[in-house]
Amino acid sequence: MPRVKPQQKTAERIFHPLSRKAGQLERETLRKAKLAAQVAKRGKKKTIQADRYAFFLHALPPDIESLSLADLHELIREVWLTRHDLALEEEQASRRRGRPKSTKEDKLEEAKRRDAEEYATGLELPDLTDARTVRLFRQWDGSDVNYLSILRLIRVSGTHPDVIHVARVGRDKPAGTSDRQPSGDGEMEVDKEEALRVSRPGSTMLSMDEIPV
């Protein structure tokens, strides 16, 4: 039988820690680590965004074309900002007197604080006062974050409840698709940070008991 030669291991090159090559390798490693961290951060941000939008999608009453601005603020105050209240009350009730707060209770209180601060300074979400955006929003499957790029986004705040800031007009096609074509629906092009005073006739005045959570 022919003899099989054992495979020879390639010796790993070791560079002097102060050499130029070692410095290049270190910079390349750091660059890759930063890129990986940025990708992970973007992915986490998109997941948080998708979870938030899915909440508002399920909170929308099924039989309306759009919300009035007053109803949108009511939805935020009565449903979005209170979504942790039940879990927080249960956590507080289970804590024995004199015992420190649990980690879960601390996190719930921190989440409520962040939500309140964000609403005071400006909460970004799909424009639920716009019928076209609501119609497109209802077609979302709840998971495809690229689809969200076609939605018109606004920022509203509890500090200035009569003002809508347009954060993004919305694409004609979802992100990742090519051959963009004009939408032909006559949608107004606005500046990214333009503040619009809203005066939409006909409030829908919905009961918060009818909103699914």
From TrEMBL:
Feature: compositional bias, Basic and acidic residues = 102-116
Q: Which Pfam family, any one of them, does this sequence belong to?
A: Tma16
Query: What's in the GO CC field?
Result: nucleus
Q: Where are the residues of the annotated region Disordered?
A: 91-116, 170-213
PANTHER family per UniProt: TRANSLATION MACHINERY-ASSOCIATED PROTEIN 16
Give the family from UniProt.
Answer: Belongs to the TMA16 family.
Q: What is this protein called?
A: Translation machinery-associated protein 16
Species, as recorded: Serendipita indica (strain DSM 11827) (Root endophyte fungus)
